[in-house]
């Protein structure tokens, strides 16, 4: 055992005992789910009663869940945005209770293209961190060989821009990493500054360069495509990486700022470089086993992201994979209990949860069920209220209940909502796709100087999973402009969806590929669907975005 590990053991022991108490309390809570949820709702309402949102919705008069449901309609970010905008401008009591201030705003893509800004308070950050503590302790219980060994985390920066009052707006994962307990930060192999490297190729190479000389045991990221891209960059630049390891140098491909370059300091390690060189010669490609002894991987595995698992196996062999749970900028909603499954138990101690049966989704008056009322095998859409001051917020995530823990549901993520598609986590909406086509057509008309240059009335987009996943754009009215429209629509989507833009820039998502169909194809298909459904034509709504993902035919 190293001297550093020996010195860290007492601190790690105390941190572990704290996490163990949190985990024990969390697991016990599921034996009285209904009571825990009622108590949490009362606490949330009482704490927020004097906020502007609380006064506008009569929180002081709410006695129980029935009153709450009557007073606060199920909503979305758009329904809360007027209050969030006031918090952004410094009026905290619009949404936040007295004494609470936003530490930052967690950003994610909005339905219409305008980014969401989720207020992150000390209480909300505490709940998110506690969820990670519980998650981490349960994994280490199953994989004790990873205890006090290095961790490679891939996350985005907490500051992508500033709010009007100067607060950081970015990724909450970046903030949680930078403010993590010192004992955990000691295990991180990638300095926080690396998250701010703009060039994706340089950022991945720098991340791997920082990690390759440490015996990384855990790789943590939300999307498995990030882990895959990290290793593929290493494979593409294997000779450069081996040379850097041997000489103790840092020669990244792509652009990198002088400040980051200056901060990178490495010692020569010719023994490791020789081992990597031998592994490359033996296997024909650089693999993680040539420099790491990985105990497990942490990333999403549900929905379309399960398509990445075979590639992870190619790279990492039979290393266990633990899903990180249903986790978003808005909160943590499940905690997985075992490897090899996307299912996790509902996080009932940090969120008041409601579930809309899938058959009622999209209706005017859905009747949501509470966490203890769900049935195994049924599918639901998740609605929550939590310490981010988000009230009856429809997350638009479809889940399936697969088991129970005490009175609580254990559920797996299936997909985004009825009109949202995602292959690598980009979460594009039908609204964004339609708007991107509108912008693309206008730009094509402007470039061509011909009003007839592009009038695309019917089209559909659908994801395709390949070595580099992409979206296929199909239409029978491209009029010979499909390639240019594909490029323009791709650029427009980058402007409308920050996560799509990020995935495109980093090379995890390929450009849109247009396919010209014979004239009348889509109209004929619509006519047949109407006949198949025995519906009237006015009841049919063309679907511009298909949410299921196809396997590449190539």
Q: Can you offer a commentary on this structure?
A:
This protein is an alpha/beta fold. It has 3 domains: 3-122 and 325-416, no CATH class; 123-322, no CATH class; 420-551, no CATH class. It is built from 18 helices and 23 strands. The strands form 6 sheets. Strands 11-12-17-16-15-13-14 form a 7-stranded antiparallel β-sheet. It has a 4-stranded mixed β-sheet with strand order 2-1-5-4. A 4-stranded parallel β-sheet has the order 3-6-7-8, with no helix packed on it. The termini are far apart. 44% of the residues are buried.
Keywords:
554 residues, single chain, 4-stranded mixed beta sheet, 3 domains, 7-stranded antiparallel beta sheet, 18 helices, alpha/beta
Quick gist of this model?
40% of the residues lie in helices and 19% in strands. It is of the alpha/beta class.
Whole-number tally of structural domains: 3
Secondary structure: helix percent:
25-40%
Strand proportion, as a percent range, falls in: 15-25%
Structural class category: alpha/beta
Average pLDDT, rounded to a whole number, is 89
Question: How many helix segments?
Answer: 18
Number of strands: 23
- How big is the Rg? 25 Å
Poorly predicted regions are 533-540
Question: So what's the overall shape?
Answer: globular
Between the first and last Cα atoms, what is the distance in angstroms?
50 Å
Strand order of the largest sheet: 11-12-17-16-15-13-14
Largest sheet: 7 strands, antiparallel
């Amino acid at each position: 055992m190293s001297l550093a590990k020996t010195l860290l053991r007492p601190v790690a022991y105390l941190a572990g005992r704290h996490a163990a108490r949190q985990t024990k309390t969390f697991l016990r809570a599921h034996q009285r789910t209904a009571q825990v949820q009622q108590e949490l709702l009362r606490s949330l309402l009482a704490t927020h009663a004097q906020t502007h949102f609380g006064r506008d919705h009569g929180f002081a008069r709410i006695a129980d869940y029935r009153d709450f449901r009557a007073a606060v309609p199920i909503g979305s970010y758009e329904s809360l945005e007027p209050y969030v905008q006031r918090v952004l401008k410094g009026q905290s009591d619009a949404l936040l209770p007295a004494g609470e201030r936003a530490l930052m705003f967690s950003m994610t893509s909005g339905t219409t293209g305008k980014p969401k800004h989720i207020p992150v308070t000390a209480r909300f950050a505490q709940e998110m961190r506690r969820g990670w503590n519980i998650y981490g302790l349960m994994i280490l219980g199953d994989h004790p060989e990873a205890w006090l060994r290095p961790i490679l985390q891939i996350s985005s920066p907490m500051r992508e821009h500033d709010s009007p009052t100067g607060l950081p707006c970015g990724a909450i994962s970046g903030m949680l990493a930078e403010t993590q307990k010192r004992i955990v930060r000691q295990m991180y192999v990638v300095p926080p500054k690396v998250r701010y490297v703009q060039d994706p190729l340089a950022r991945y190479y720098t991340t791997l360069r920082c990690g390759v000389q440490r015996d990384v045991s855990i790789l943590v990221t939300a999307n498995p495509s990030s882990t895959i891209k990290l290793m593929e960059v290493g494979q593409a630049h294997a000779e450069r990486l081996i040379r850097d390891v041997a000489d103790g140098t840092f020669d990244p491909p792509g652009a990198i700022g002088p400040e980051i370059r200056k901060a990178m300091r490495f010692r020569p390690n010719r023994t490791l470089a020789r081992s990597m060189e031998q592994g490359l010669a033996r296997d024909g490609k650089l693999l993680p086993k040539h420099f790491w002894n990985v105990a497990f991987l942490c990333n999403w595995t549900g929905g379309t992201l399960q398509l990445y698992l075979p590639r992870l196996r190619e790279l990492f062999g039979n290393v266990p994979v633990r899903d990180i749970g249903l986790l978003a900028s808005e909160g943590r909603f499940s905690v997985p209990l075992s490897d090899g499954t996307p299912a996790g138990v509902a996080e009932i101690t940090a969120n008041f949860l409601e579930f809309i049966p899938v058959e009622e989704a999209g209706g005017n008056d859905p009747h949501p069920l509470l966490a203890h009322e769900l049935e195994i095998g049924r599918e639901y859409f998740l609605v929550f209220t939590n310490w981010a001051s988000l009230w009856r917020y429809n997350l638009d995530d479809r889940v399936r209940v697969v088991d129970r823990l005490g009175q609580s549901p254990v559920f797996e993520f299936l997909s985004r909502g009825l009109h949202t598609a995602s292959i690598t986590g980009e979460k594009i909406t039908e609204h964004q796709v339609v708007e991107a086509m509108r912008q693309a057509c206008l730009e094509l008309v402007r470039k061509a100087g011909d009003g007839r240059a592009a009038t695309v009335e019917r089209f559909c987009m659908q994801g395709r999973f390949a070595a580099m996943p992409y979206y296929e754009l199909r239409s029978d009215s491209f009029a010979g402009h499909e390639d240019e429209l594909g490029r323009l629509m791709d650029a427009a989507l980058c402007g409308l969806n920050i996560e799509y833009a990020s995935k495109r820039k980093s090379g995890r998502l390929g450009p849109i590929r247009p396919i010209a169909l014979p004239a009348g194809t889509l109209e004929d298909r619509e006519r047949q669907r109407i006949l198949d459904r025995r519906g009237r034509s006015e009841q049919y709504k063309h679907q511009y975005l298909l949410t299921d993902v196809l396997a590449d035919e190539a």
